[in-house]
Amino acid sequence: MALWHREAPPSSASPHPRLQRRERSPARPPVPPAHAKPKQASAQIARDPDQGPLANAPPVTSSSPSTTSFLSSKLSSDITALSPLRRPARTQRSHPSADPQHCTRSHHKLVNDHLISHHPRSPQRRQSAKMTSPKRRIETDVMKLLMSDYEITLINDSMQEFYVRFHGPDETPFAGGVWKIHVELPDQYPYKSPSIGFMNKIFHPNIDELSGSVCLDVINQTWSPMFDCINIFEVFLPQLLRYPNPTDPLNGEAAALLMREPKTYEARVKDYVQRFATKEAANAAGEEEDDDDDDDDEMSDVGSFSDQGEPMGDMEM
């Protein structure tokens, strides 16, 4: 049996075209754009005021006297050209504000007094801030309350004393009631809690039935300088009516009924709401005290007139 052998190709045969190594053409130098300017070599000259421009100068050799004279003249011209670029001395003052006599107390006393008084750490600024911050806070809180949905009535156009119409919270025995609340803001507000009083009657353990004043201990326990006037009517009073505290009462009868007979307490609260917490009663609550004050003023005026008047004559029989 004869075997057929394939002869190997001669070594001189060229390899596969994909395996052939392509010869790269020599790299061409990049062509600069038309608008580019040829770069010129610039000598780096030191600008240190201590060393001067001779620090980076090439060393001068004594090859020939002409070369030495040329280099010395060249360096002298460079030094003359670069002299304006030297750094100014530390003692030189380039701005009038650097002058020690500029804006001093002797030259500008009023300006300095104004700047010192308005400095945040000055005693005048601290004292004025202490005096104005409570007043600004009062004005801000009252203006915020006036822009709300509550009905506000200022007393004698004062920001520290006013009336607010308050409605009883829902899902409580006080629902449907309307009260006129008297609010007085102290001078230390908001660091000191305001005084709150109900002008028309309300049956509550922590509210005096006769004067309508709210227990101060209850107010101080919940009051914080972060609160404002709106929080009184949106948070404080609704929570006070929903969750009374019979352990610290101003109305002993209401506290006893709440602890012993809660249903009787709710019935008494609803009875007070129907009798004393109507819109008409709330409108007439503050007018009675105003009428009493006017009567007292009239009586005092009559007494002063009788004292200053003419003497009374004999009574005719």
TrEMBL record:
SMART domains: UBCc (SM00212). Residues 58-77 have a biased composition (Low complexity). One of its GO terms (molecular function) is ligase activity. CDD domains: UBCc_UBE2H. Keywords: ATP-binding, Ligase, Nucleotide-binding, Transferase, Ubl conjugation pathway. It holds the Pfam family UQ_con. Residues 286-300 have a biased composition (Acidic residues). This is Ubiquitin-protein ligase. It comes from Pseudozyma antarctica (strain T-34) (Yeast). The lineage of its organism: Eukaryota, Fungi, Dikarya, Basidiomycota, Ustilaginomycotina.
